[in-house]
């Protein structure tokens, strides 16, 4: 759906810009610099052919321009517009909220609401509502609500819709009981990065963690799936080997496990993954897997590569919730200055993993 463009008397607007008429109720952007300003900005006047006019700072930002550091035009913008949209969605989880309704709440165009909301929160308004419903559903199940009550209290129209949106990876009843009835095989091994544990369902690898000791590594799996049926499976050691090889070929400990007829390429030996998360989290985890070994990205770089330049914080949160370390290489994401920042399994391990990838 195209955005309805504001109608300006551009000749008059240009004269107001040159006169630095602070009473003018609009903003201007300069195509050559990518910056937007308020009328009255002390910066040097731009060339006429490079100027675009916008009724609000929000719409200038939605068009891809960044705020001027000198006149700070966003301080005049209706900064709480997205907060109003978010609050309206949260107050109406029992029904689907049309984008047109959100546009009226924010007093912005449909296009602007959609674009800015996705930039800020890393998801469209509809995806955000679905994620909230899923979170409510999970919480209700954990609190002991019946599946039926949880489904309808979270705003879903049917149990099948709830199961699909919540992305539980198991039936709602099993999730409510801490994964009871779910069968997860696991294996552990000592590695240069500490004890590594992998857990896998029949759909693929669902857990890979690192611990200081064997007991600590096993505890991570039991905490994540407290009521699942966990069974040791030595065949899964090949997943540990695949994880190590993804870091460096120097750590190829499992050639004998794969057998002489196995393909030689790393891609052929990567295990299937059973990742469980929101739509946005799955996108982030997939983006992490596209970072080549030996390279790093900052959170903001990763967000831009995903086409979500304003979702840096959401990207960082998704990285922190990654359940499959090493193979979903969140250790390859660093601070904008190159600092290691945090890591779920310890900054020292992150440092060792990155050093190994430089071999």
List the helices and strands and how they pair.
Elements: H1 10-18, E1 27-30, E2 35-38, E3 51-54, H2 57-62, E4 66-67, H3 81-91, H4 99-106, H5 110-121, H6 125-142, H7 147-153, H8 159-166, H9 172-176, E5 183-191, E6 194-201, E7 204-211, H10 214-224, E8 229-232, H11 237-247, H12 255-258, H13 279-288, E9 297-298, H14 299-305, H15 312-320, E10 333-334, H16 347-357
Parallel strand pairs: 2-4, 5-8, 9-10
Antiparallel strand pairs: 1-2, 1-3, 5-6, 6-7
Average residue pLDDT: 76
Total of DSSP H or I helical runs spanning 4+ residues: 16
Query: For the report, how would you describe the main beta sheet?
Result: 4 strands, mixed
Find the CATH superfamily of the largest domain: Homeodomain-like
* Shape type: elongated
Give an account of the 3D structure.
The chain is an alpha/beta fold and 359 residues long. The protein has 4 domains: 10-76, DNA Methylphosphotriester Repair Domain (3-Layer(aba) Sandwich); 79-170, Arc Repressor Mutant, subunit A (Orthogonal Bundle); 183-269, Double Stranded RNA Binding Domain (2-Layer Sandwich), CATH 3.30.160; 279-357, Winged helix-like DNA-binding domain superfamily/Winged helix DNA-binding domain (Arc Repressor Mutant, subunit A). It is 41% helix and 13% strand. The protein contains 16 helices and 10 strands. The protein has helices at 10-18, 57-62, 81-91, 99-106, 110-121, 125-142, 147-153, 159-166, 172-176, 214-224, 237-247, 255-258, 279-288, 299-305, 312-320, 347-357, and strands at residues 27-30, 35-38, 51-54, 66-67, 183-191, 194-201, 204-211, 229-232, 297-298, 333-334. The strands form 3 sheets. The chain has a 4-stranded mixed β-sheet. It has a 4-stranded mixed β-sheet with strand order 7-6-5-8, with helices on both faces. Helix 3 packs across helix 6 (125-142) and helix 6 (125-142) runs antiparallel to helix 7. It starts with 9 loop residues before the first helix and ends with a helix.
